[in-house]
Amino acid sequence: MIPEFAHPLAYLVKRYGIYLVYALLAAGFFLLYKKAGAKTFFLVLAAFVCIVFLLGYWGQKLVIFYPQQEMEATPAKHGVPFSETRMGTADGESLYAWFVPGEKDKPVILFCHGNASTVSDPSYLRFLQLVHDIGLSALIFDYRGFGRSSGSPSEEGTYRDAEAVWEHLRAERDFSARDIVIWGKSLGGGPAAYLATRHPDCRTLVLESTFTSVPEVAQRLIPFLPASRIIHHEYPVARYVRQIGCPVLVMHSPQDETIPYSLGREIYALAPEPKRFLELRGGHVWGLWASRERVVPVLEEFLLSPPQSRAHER
Predict the structure, then answer these.
(1) CB-based burial of residue 277 (10 Å sphere; 0-12 exposed, 13-18 middle, 19+ buried)?
(2) What is the pLDDT confidence band of residue 227, given thresholds at 50, 70 and 90?
(3) Helix (H, G, I), strand (E, B) or coil at 288
């Protein structure tokens, strides 16, 4: 069974709970209007909007990143060999990472994970198991402020972190750019897409369950307010993906309860050729693992023998 669907009520609340909140707010304001009159209603409504904007402006960093520190398990839980490693960033932070070795002459995945997690998230451990079974190497790291990495998270910081991991694979692990697959999951789609614009000679860009931009996600969550105007963490994946010079694989699930499926389709539409879209099944966290029967053949085809792009031809 798909993990999210094991508790259907929790899944429904996560996917549709925001609409219940809207309904309750509408009912509350309607009752206020009926009992207290128009003047009180508009005063309370204005105060409510101001509070929402202030909380959104000052609290968005916590909501967007929600950094975790707890380490739950290691790849050894699923029989996957790994080694711990650290790498420094250009601005002096220290990043914690795991390197999973694969078969010789096969590519390596540079994995940028999502928010509210660390490298030890159970879904990432299954991801490492999946790619290791294909024979791929993988390096998964925690952004600054996450897990055992130093610092405090920020959009610009995650870009620097991804660049530091790229340099580590090139200089310390001796992988050529042509052998590095850049993979972004959810929030990780931001730094992954950015990194691919910086290194168009990478092997492939994989965007799993990610968004077009953070302001667009915010606007969809709060469509009746100009929520996008107060967001200062942009992660403009849609803009980056237009500049990509490598093959692009986009994966998303229609049952994704966190990031709308339509945003994944939009990213795919904007990406230049060569590209491919793979529809997953299941929720936001476990969609890849739940779809592994259809994912593995696509990964073997698209990552081991990727189509030629303009950057690769040069």
Answers:
(1) middle
(2) low
(3) helix
